[in-house]
Design a protein that fits this description.
The protein is mainly β and 192 residues long. The protein is built from two helices and twelve strands; from the N terminus they run βαββββαβββββββ. The chain folds into two domains: 63 residues, no CATH class; 126 residues, Galactose-binding domain-like (Jelly Rolls). The radius of gyration is 18 Å and the shape is globular. It starts with a strand and ends with a strand. It holds the Pfam family F5_F8_type_C_2.
């Protein structure tokens, strides 16, 4: 759960719509929006204190998350030296100029695909977007072994975000639906 400023229900809905993991909200008349994230409701992830209504994340949830390993990748095209491996090299910097991001040419439906070391259940994917031209990733399809598990259509660009997938397979693909370049600075797949 996250709290952000908001003076009306409309503002709360806009905040929620701009966050890929938000599935609902509550407007508090104190000028706050409570945004609800799906991971907050997985069993046994919250501890409460009997003395007051304070809830904290348990360490069990952190242990449930497991980052999956990519062993290779490919992309539809390559612009300059911005190869597909830049998205799985562990470098989370979001600056294309430092060689930390992938970049394709400007064809329609450009894609990036990563190969996992073993077939796995992918709960969600974390994408690190580039700092400039971040809006190019506002519309994309997330696929597992060629089957779409999430279609993303954002109104505001993101910096780093989690996108649910909940599918089994060994190939994770991001296909740009914006009709231009695709650039990813880092991508991580997780299972619960």
């Amino acid at each position: 759960m996250e709290s952000v400023p908001g003076n009306a229900v409309l503002q709360c809905s806009q905040h929620c719509a701009s966050r890929p993991t938000c599935f609902g909200f509550s407007w508090l008349q104190l000028g706050l929006c409570r945004l609800f994230n799906w991971s907050a409701f997985i069993n046994d992830t919250w501890n409460s204190s009997d003395a007051c209504d304070v809830y904290t994340r348990s360490e069990q949830f952190k242990q449930l998350q497991k980052r999956l390993k990519f062993v290779g990748c490919k992309q539809s095209s390559t612009h300059s030296s911005h190869i597909c491996d830049n998205a799985i090299d562990g470098n989370r910097k979001k600056n294309l100029s430092f060689g930390s991001c992938t970049h394709t040419t400007g064809n329609p439906f450009e894609w990036w695909e990563g190969q996992l070391n073993a077939p796995s259940f992918v709960s969600y994917v974390t994408i690190y977007n580039r700092q400039d031209y971040a809006e190019r990733l506002n519309k994309f399809s997330l696929q597992m072994d060629g089957v779409e598990c999430n279609r993303v259509s954002l109104t505001l660009p993101f910096s780093v975000a989690n996108f649910s997938c909940n599918a089994f397979g060994s190939r994770v693909r991001v296909t740009n639906l914006f009709g231009q370049y695709l650039s990813i600075c880092e991508i991580e797949a997780y299972t619960l």
